[in-house]
Amino acid sequence: SLEVLQDLEDGLKKADADPSVKAVMICGENGKFSAGADIRGFSSPKRRGVGLAPIVSRIESSEKPVVAAIEGVALGGGLEVALGCHYRVAHVQARMGLPEVTIGLLPGAEGTQRLPRLIGVPAALDMITTGKHIPATEALKLGLVDEIVEENTIEAAIRLANKV
């Protein structure tokens, strides 16, 4: 939603400006990182506000380490947010993907550029063109996530942020 994007942008600006903040951790609510955009909003008139691609670029360009704590799902724009992060920790039961292609849409927040850089062209093309969801264990093998955990993902992400 626009509110989530605005809150994400505001939080990033605040963290970047605060010298006491050494790292940033991004997580979702209720056991889900993000299922991406609500496609019903795509047909509505142009809305004002911040877009996802500039937010992901802001995350990526942060001078402070940004760690994604992925629980549940990171799909579509949610995965693109995670791709903008410098590090990714996923719960062992998490699933990731860019499913929008299954309804005729391409990932719109530069996921098609970031994913191949991270996991290589063949694996990225498979994910981008099929829309398949991959489990955390496969994401770790591909290099999409840096660590998978069975315990509290947020605590693990904070530990990683403190380490880096």
UniProtKB/TrEMBL annotation:
Q: Name one GO molecular function term.
A: enoyl-CoA hydratase activity
Got a GO cellular component term for this one?
Answer: peroxisome
Q: Which UniProt keywords apply?
A: Isomerase, Lyase, Multifunctional enzyme
Listed InterPro entries = ClpP/crotonase-like_dom_sf, Enoyl-CoA_hyd/isom_CS, Enoyl-CoA_hydra/iso
Q: Which domain of life is it from?
A: Eukaryota
Q: Name one GO biological process term.
A: fatty acid beta-oxidation
- According to its UniProt record, which protein family does this protein belong to? In the C-terminal section; belongs to the 3-hydroxyacyl-CoA dehydrogenase family.
Name of the molecule in the record: Peroxisomal bifunctional enzyme
Taxonomic lineage of the native organism: Eukaryota, Metazoa, Chordata, Craniata, Vertebrata
